[in-house]
Write a structure and sequence with these properties.
Tetracycline Repressor, domain 2, 2 domains, Arc Repressor Mutant, subunit A, mainly alpha, 75% helix
Amino acid sequence: MNTRDRIIDAAEQVIREHGIAGATTKRIAQRADCSEALLYKHFTGKERLVLAVLLERMPALAPALARLELEAGRGDLVANLTAFALTALDFYTKAAGIASGVIGDPQLLAGFREMLATVGGGPHLPIERLASYLSEEQRLGRLDSALDSATAATLLMGACFHRANLSYFVTLPDEPARWAQDVVRAAVRR
């Protein structure tokens, strides 16, 4: 394993054990068995390191969206969207601790927002890609043309985000797969 991957793995472990506030670069470097200087050689700041953990160690939305986009016009629409919703639910569930830590630290949040703006990233992008996929399904005649694809994408992703957060506080009564299918059907009524 290369040094960069070791640092990302260490950061993920330290964040899980100590939260964002306790995940100091010193603690992460110690866990990665490297110096802080070497950590900063690979990551210009804690924001970049947190982003790397989110993008490289969490269940990835980008590959799931790419698979979904390839399925436009093919297969069962509800099944395709349900599979994607389950991936989004898994991502949001695993990323919640990191995201809440970033939100809870004003300085880290400001730096994270600035970095996202610089790289053209952000949590709105999966919603936009999902809306584009839904628009393509409309163009192909598989979804009602009256459906507002941006709203449907927002509802679907928002439901996944909300359920992920709820799961930290209560035991949810229904199976995730059944829930995802029901949410998809509600969001994209045909």
